[in-house]
Amino acid sequence: MIFARWALAFLLGNLAAGSPAQTVEPQLVAVSAPFGQCTYAENRGETGSGPAFEICGRFSEGLAQVRIEGRFGYVDRDLRVVIEPRFQSAGPFRQGRAEIILDGKAGIIDREGRFVVEPAFARIIPFTGDTFIARALVAGQVSGDLPTWLPGLDRLELSGVHGGLFDPAKGWLTGQGLEFNFFDEAERGLIWARSVAVDPETWGLLRADGTWQVTPRYSHTQSISEGRAVVRDATGASGAVDADGVLVIPATFQWLGYWRGGYGWAKRDGREAIVRPDGTLLAGQYFEKVEISDEGLLPRVRIGGLWRSVGPDGTIIDDDRGAVLFECPGGFRFRQHARGIEISHAGHARPIGVYDDTYFGQRSCGTALSVRRDGKWGFILADGTPLPATPEFDNTYGFGGERSFVQQSGLWGIIDDKGQFIVPPTWSELSGSGDIWRAKLGSETVLIDRNGNPTVEPRPDHTLALNCGDRVKFFTENGLWGLRDAGRIMIPARYRALSCFGSGVSYAVKPGAKAWCPLGSDGEDRDAPPCLDTYYSITASHSWPEAFAEDPFESSVSWNRAMLNYGIGKRAEPPQWRRRFDPAPGSGPYPTEED
Q: Which of 225, 249, 214, 106 has the alpha carbon at shortest distance from 155?
């Protein structure tokens, strides 16, 4: 089993300022700090020198939401606290407004931290001006945490958001049974909406005053891209509207994709076409395939297996072989070619060859390339040497460690960096990664190393279950647990179970307690964030943890204690996560922590 401790995941980047001009702010990104905390630096990968926070949001309009001692406030770009931390959760700013959660209720603050809308809602999202997307709070309901890593208003955050439009001075502008989707910059005051109760399958374009710009009529909608938004009518046919919602491309296409490089991408019966903004086809027809560039290059079409370029007037011309797609610092250069992608290298006087376009991109820089031509695979080593001279393998795994697994005539073998077989192709199946692979020969499955030699599964290192990173480790005294930092006791061994630090806190269970409650990095109790009913040091999707008791809290405590006991060798196996298709956990008997 691979052990992974829960830690704060950062979605790094900046949010453009909320003015109509969309001024881009200088880069400032969240980086890791000790004890699962974070701070900010100019570039990713740098070590921040500023104060550490428990959670770092992304900057929007010059401010970022951060969590300090369990509560959210805001810092400016000098990392000075400008809105004191007092909120349960907080969102980014847009047009000078931000959504916050206080005492389980959502409200709106301005850049001074003053309430524009008092906390009284389940959600209230800044839309435009004095209009907000809101959902009333049902009696007995409390608001949950806001996603700190999303911009203030985009299609990700709006996906599945139900409610209505609300103006603090005018009250509700619409009913509250609407679902919303992003259309254009919020400042323009237009948003896709549909009535969940009345007509849940049909979208219209709603104005900020609650009236319809376009009455509901579309089964599918997209956001504006280069002045066009793709829509689909009730029959499934696709067209596009302009920035005002006017249908400027009738819904006559079998399929129409997003706009890029000034054109749309259409498909019909397995063939593809390039669509002008007026809905006509560039070059007037469908092709085998098309490529549309957003980097100023001419669009391309494939005819009879050859790529040709298409001019703005629709004239099909020779493909622009001089168009460099990108270059790698190590010497690789990738150009468009009529038959695919031409690859050259600074260390070779002539191009290496023309290959199929198989997801080449900046990720290809600095490594051996896997290339394909005429249905066969090969490699180009980092120095530009093709291996073999002509692709001849049915399939490959990426080249690494001076060797690779390759498939030839339906069987798998291993070649070295000279293209010679270290192990002849003899296996019918091969799977795995790293140093140990699972090979199937007939009905027998064996473990092999990267040289093809038989090997055995390494014995698991139980002590990994005691690690919280490089320095911090669990330790036990008299059946209770604590944490040491490089040998120094951070948290004395006085808890039935506790977690590694994440977002600046460790969740711990005192003897006799009925919840997992937060401790600070000083080992002291914290009154925020709130305690948890259950906690698990590792999780698995579509699975449930092995049950140790009927009570979920007690089961979670015993599960984590079993993991720690596995770390000190008191258990032969770690506690498990059951797959979703395994039988559901029954009513006992339950294992003990040491079983």
A: 225
Amino acid (1-letter code) at residue 98:
A
- Coil, helix or strand at residue 444: strand
Do residues 229 and 205 lie in contact, with contact meaning Cβ atoms separated by under 8 Å? no
Lowest mean pLDDT among 201-205, 470-474, 491-495: 470-474
Report pLDDT for 363. 65
Q: How far apart are CA 198 and CA 245, in angstroms?
A: 22
Cα–Cα dist 564/496, whole Å: 11
Name the range with the highest mean pLDDT among 30-39, 236-245, 318-327: 236-245
Q: What is the pLDDT of residue 568?
A: 94
Instruction: Please give the C-alpha separations between residue 546 and each of 123, 383, 555, 593, in angstroms, as whole numbers.
Output: 35, 51, 8, 11
User: What DSSP state is assigned to residue 559?
Assistant: H
Q: Six-digit token pair at 375? A: 């249905």
Q: What is the pTM of this model?
A: 0.75
CATH architecture classification, 396-457: Beta Barrel (2.40)
Distance CA 403, CA 587 (A): 51
**Among 329, 328, 358, 327, residue whose Cα is nearest residue 341:** 358
Note the pLDDT of residue 156: 45
Of the candidates 480, 479, 485, the one whose C-alpha atom is nearest the C-alpha of residue 467 is: 485
Burial degree of 443 (CB within 10 A; 0-12, 13-18, 19+): exposed
Token reading at 78: 């000098």
Question: How large is the average pLDDT for residues 517-537?
Answer: 93
Percent of the chain exceeding pLDDT 70 equals 90
In the chain, where are the structural domains located?
Answer: 29-203, 238-317, 396-457, 462-579
Is 94 exposed, middle or buried, given 0-12, 13-18 or 19+ CB atoms closer than 10 A?
buried
CB atoms within 10 A of CB 279: 18
How far is residue 550's CA from residue 495's CA, in Å, rounded to a whole number?
21
Of the candidates 537, 546, 458, which has an alpha carbon nearest to the alpha carbon of residue 502? 537
Dist. CA 192–CA 180, nearest whole Å: 6
The pair of structure tokens assigned to 426 is: 């003899």
Output phi, psi for 413, to 5 deg.
-140, -170
CB atoms within 10 A of CB 198: 11
Region of residue 112 (left: phi > 0; alpha: psi -120 to 50; beta: else): alpha
- Strand order through the sheet with 271-275: 255-256, 264-268, 271-275
Name residues whose C-beta falls within 8 Å of residue 258's C-beta, 6 or more positions apart in sequence: 222, 225, 230, 264, 265
DSSP secondary structure letter of residue 292 = -
Task: Give mean pLDDT, residues 500-523.
Answer: 94
Q: What is the DSSP letter of 502?
A: B
- Evaluated on CA atoms 70, 76, 79, 82, the torsion sign reads negative
